[in-house]
Amino acid sequence: MKLTFNNTNASLRVLLENEGFVFPCNGKGLCGRCRIIAPDLPITDKDRTFIPSDDLKKGVRLACDKVIDGEITIDCLLEKRTEKVSKVSEGDAYVVFEEDRSLVGLIADGEIVEELVLPSVDTDFRSLRAFAQRETIELYEKYGLAKATVMLLAGTPQKITECTGIIEEYDYVNTVEANLFDMPSEEVCLLPKPTALIGGDLLLEVLGRAEGTMVVKGSYFAFIGDTELYCARVIPNLNNPATYVATLAYFIKRFNPATALYVGANVIAANAGLRSSESLVTKNVVNVLSSNRQKAKLERLAKKVVELSLADDEDWQNLLTEISK
To answer: I need a labelling partner for 147 at 20 to 30 A (CA). Which of 36, 123, 248, 277 fits?
Structure first.
C-alpha cells in the first residue's frame, strides 16, 4: 500500500502503527520483517543486517528504525491490524526460546495463524514456563481455542534443560503428555538436544539448507557437510571481536563453504563478507509439526552434529594469534 507522509523528525514506525499496520516484533528490530519500499530513504546498518544487497538496490528498507523528516512516499508491505479474527477449532502451537528473542505461534491446517516475536526470556524455570503458558493461552483465547493439540518446544539447550528439567542429551524428536510440563496442550513435541551447546533452535535454522552451507547465527557457527553438521559456539563481543573473527576465518578456511550466510543482526559477519539470510525457524516449525518425514530429517540432522572444541584446535589458535596482533 502506497502512503505519503510529510512530517518533521517523526518515527516511521509510530506513523505506520497509527495507520493500523502491525510490526511483528513490536518494532524492536529483532525480526527484519517490517519491510517497505522506499528508495529515497538512506540504507541503515539494520537494513544491511536483514535485507539482501539485491533487495536494498531495489529500495527495500526496514521501517522500524527510520525517521521521517520532510515529504516521502513509501510502499508499505506490512499487514494491517484487523479487528475480527477467524476462530479455529483445532490447532498446534510452538514456543522457540532463541538466544536473543522468543517465537510464539499458532498453526491451523498447516498454516501460521499468528506469530509473536518477543524479547528473550531469562533462563530460569519459572520465567520460561510462565512465558510459554501465558503467551500461548492468550493466542488460544484470541482465536477461540481451548488448548493446542501439540505444542512444539525448542530452544537453546540451557533454556530447554531449565524449562523441562531434562538434563541428558538426546538426538531424536520426543512427543510426551503435556501435563508433564504443565503446558496448555494435549502433547508436547520436544526437539533434539544433541549436545550441551547445540539444540533444537540451531537445528531448525539449518534444516533444509543445502550441503556446503555455512550458517552463523548469534553465537552459533554451523557448516553442513555430507555426513556431519559441524558446530561451534562463540559469544560475539564488539569491543573485542578477535575470538569471533577467528572462528569465522576458521570455518571458512577449514570447510571452504559454497555459501556463507548469517541470520539476524550480526555486524561482524556482515563485515566479513557473509550474506544475510532470512531465518528458517518458523518455516521449519510448521514443516516438523505437519510432516513425519520432516521429523525424520530433523533427527538425521541431529545425529550428524559434531561439536568442535576450538580451544584444542591448533589451526584455530594460530588464526586467533594472527588476528590478535
So the answer is: 123
